[in-house]
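cron nightly-structures :: item 1 of 1
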Amino acid sequence: MKRITLFYALVCTVWNISAQSHKDIASVDSLAARVERFGTGLPQEKVYLHIDNTCYFVGDTIWYKAYVTRSDKGWLTDLSKIMYVELLTPDGYLVERQQLKMEDGTAHGAFTLTDSLYAGYYELRAYTRWMLNFGRHEHPHSKYTEDMFYNKQMAKDFFRDYDKLYSRVFPVFDHPKEAGRYAKDMTLRPMRRYYKARKGKPEIDLRFYPEGGHLIEGTDGHVAFEINDEEGKHLDAEFSIIDSDGKEVAQTRTLNRGRGVFTLTDMKPDDKYKARLHYQDYDYEVKLPEVEKEGYALHVERKDSVLRMIIQGTTESKEELGIQIQCNGVSKAVRKLSTNATGKDTVDIYWASLPTGVNQITVFNGEGRIYADRLFFVNHHDYNQPLITVEGIKQEYAPFEPIELRMKLLRHHDADVSLAIRDHATDETTYDNGTMLTEMLLASEIKGFVENPGWYFETDDSLHRKALDLLMMVQGWRRHDWKMMAGQEHTQFEFLPEKIQTLSGSVHQTYPLLEETNYGESVYIPLIADTAPIYTTAPDYHKKGIKPPLAKVLTLQDLYGPLIKKMKKEANVSASFIQDRDIVDVSQTTQNGKFYMPSAVVNDNYVLFLSASDSTKSEKYKRRRKRKGFMDEQAYPEFYVKLDPFFPVFPKPYSYYQDAAFEEKFALQDSASWESFTERKLNTVTVRSKRGGLRRLDHSKPALVVDAYEAFNLAADYGLNCGMHDWRAFSRQVATAFFGDMGMDRHFYLQEQYDGKILDFMPEQKRESEAGMSMSNAQMEKYRRLRHLDKLYIYTDYVPREQGSWKYSQTNQPEVVIDYRLLPNDGVRPTYRDRRYAATGYSVCTEFYCPDYSKKPMPDVKDYRRTLYWTPKVKFNDKGEAVIQLYNNSKKTVITVEAEGITTDGKPVVWKSETDKTYSR
């Protein structure tokens, strides 16, 4: 009942905001009021993960604690009860996704870095379903790729991307060659091909960010900038600003992390400004944004106890203008503006009235047009006082020595705190070293990655304040979209805060597959009213002499477009949850072809059967129809039923500093190639990777290994088939599911192999590069059916994090090889007409093991633990005190103690000890 109440509350709030945007007469007051209602009625959620260590080795376990907070209050969320945590490879491929049940806004879990994984910089990504309503945009792709999908909506869902989700990147090193010797070697996934390094003039990335967003005629413009090399490394530089006449109007230089600011006075509309600089013996010129004839410039500065906002327009304006300040989506101040004859107005807000954190200023008119906006940071130092103490830490511990620490909460006797104690010898400092404090106050509110965010809070001097303000101007991102909040943009909340496990999906018409043929034989295709062979990839067509226009990859729409029909009536959806001997059946009639039903509460692995039937038919008919052909994968289902995936598909590219050694001092590169990631010699890290031209395919080094049935289900849920297995198009479906279109405007080369061999289906047409094989029709039939398939081994040089890279625009574009592996010993697995999933419910985490050495161990006992102690929740007594007891490993050890958490009223708790300093919040 609570969930239903929340549902209607959310819908009514959104409806009120949307309705007012159409019915009310827009004004500054009404728009500001909508923003205020939105911020308190539909708060966002933020995530932070506390992990047990700073680096890992292949074979280790990653222990983590997740904290999810409300943006409006700051305390632990009471909206969502389910969250998702994903482990991604350095390339951006998904290793595992865990669904976690949240109790009071927190959850914990663990990932195992299995021996089959490569070393490199891995990523943890975390979110709730509610968070996926915000910051959405369309992932770059070619329009032709949309024809690979059943319909346009499924393509749109696949290419849905997000501005920002919580991310934590950390190094994973090779498995130790000798137990206990943790050499920080990093052997990355081998590639078949290297890319020629570009020579000559190095590229630089110089970008300009006018304060408020625009350069306005006749005003003074404050312009921030950031300059990086082509890899994203910050540069130290100085340069001049030149006007259209070639006159130098300003000089500037970087102040911090490649950033700086300069001022342009009394700008003219016809002036074309550009920056001129000299770098590595080369000259560069970069254009500034155009000067606009209309609008308002915004300048923000702190004057003693007030925040002063100076608004400049081209002339006096009679239109109604307003300025609004919000923090974490909650409105904090609204003022109306009244420009004078010179088009200028000044607004002062008491600094003390604004909360600590990232604040957002928006200048707008009564029609909802945004003239200027800006982020700025407020720090009242109300988070400086330590909220927890840890005592009893010795300088060093003998082998197997007992360790006892005393923890005490200060001023708050109620807080949720996780604790990690580890061997300091293998700690690895990285730029991704944020804490609960820096994430909630800073990093979660701005665009992109913030390297070493704690530096901004080390001291409150002019250098740090200026650097922080430059960060606001350069990496400003609007987590809280003012136009959406004001009802000026269409607002559609696709996902509700999850309270319970649910199934959501849709039902569609199925269609008959094209006539069964042998590989390479022609088949009649209705759309083109002609026969053509269905091959996997375009180059194969050309090898067989097929004439244009058929010499192309045939998409789902090419093959079946005319057969795809819209649903004319609703269907009855049946779901069966099976775990061991327990079976739970649920059903629901669709609404507009969609279903959203509660599922059985399930932990760990289970089997899900999903089917749909004509809702107008009798129960007898439905039972008979369900039984007939139930275990025949070639039988036609009555409907195409699919779950609607909501998980993010695409990884974000790493910034330079996410996979760089801390405080590295490399010479500036004059080229970019694979060595930018794979051949660095780091301060404490040796990165090894073999390179040397195009090598033969190494079948022991796949990029991905996936279960064939799971790959089919993924393709079907994305809309790449109609819920039926068509072996002729399966490889292309799988490649699209895992790689999209690689951001290219042409199809990438795709090759099929069968247990490591290419099928030589036309012996007289010999392959140029690799020997093929022939097989009997009976043997070939096995590779065509899911019941015989075990795994798909997928090989590619493609790195999803590098989509759009210059490397992929060359002739050496990435190839994809999909190697079909049969079940061993002529095995057969059960397959079905309807949808059958090997699904996973709530992830259940085992307890961290701490050995007991109260009895002195034998001399030959070796203990090489790096994480000595981990608990996701410290148990404090009524006085806010806790005693932690554990034992050291088998060597002399200096320990690092790290506690993080949050109080009941939303104050971040951070305490960290190191050999050289102690940091607490």
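cron nightly-structures :: done
The first helix runs from residue 2 to 23.
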